[in-house]
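User: Predict the structure for this protein chain, please.
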Amino acid sequence: GTILRRDPLTGDYSKDSGVTSKNLKDVHAVAPNEVWAVGLYGTILFFDGQAWTDMSLQDDPVDLYGVASEGKGSVYVVGVGGAVISVGMDGSFEPLLGATSSTLRGVFALDDNHVWAVGSGGTILAGSRNVWAPQYIKEPGPDGEDVPIPTTLYGVWASAPDDVWVVGDGGLTAHYDGKTWKKNEDQKDPR
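Assistant: Here is the predicted structure, written as structure tokens:
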């Protein structure tokens, strides 16, 4: 559970000790006084600019791999078994209905209506709160018809609903233009 913080004036890093002993998997900063970190065993940490607060899941400590916030109070965490959870600033949790049982490893939120989660087996979910739809990166299969790629995806980022990027195993990068996902043409098949 190592957390390093960079001093903006000196550029030096300091270690925040004693926050957690759990392995941390992702961090997302909205502002210097709103930083979120997630990890194994349901670990959810919040930094208010002064100190870290443990807001971890107690009832069902599922491993968490991704965290994102669009900066207006909505925080999304994702993890094992397709877990998608909204975390409130007051420490409340709302399990959201994802559309997969695959492990989700990354999440990005432009706003409450444009959230993407990615993970194992090429899983891409696009949605808003409890409305999620699967999306696919496809390529020609052995029969010539397009088939979804099974590559595990780890990260997602968007500047707009029609400009979304994902990364995954084997150096995979792909782009969504608002209609279809397209794998970077210069890449080799990572399978």
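The chain has a mean pLDDT of 90.
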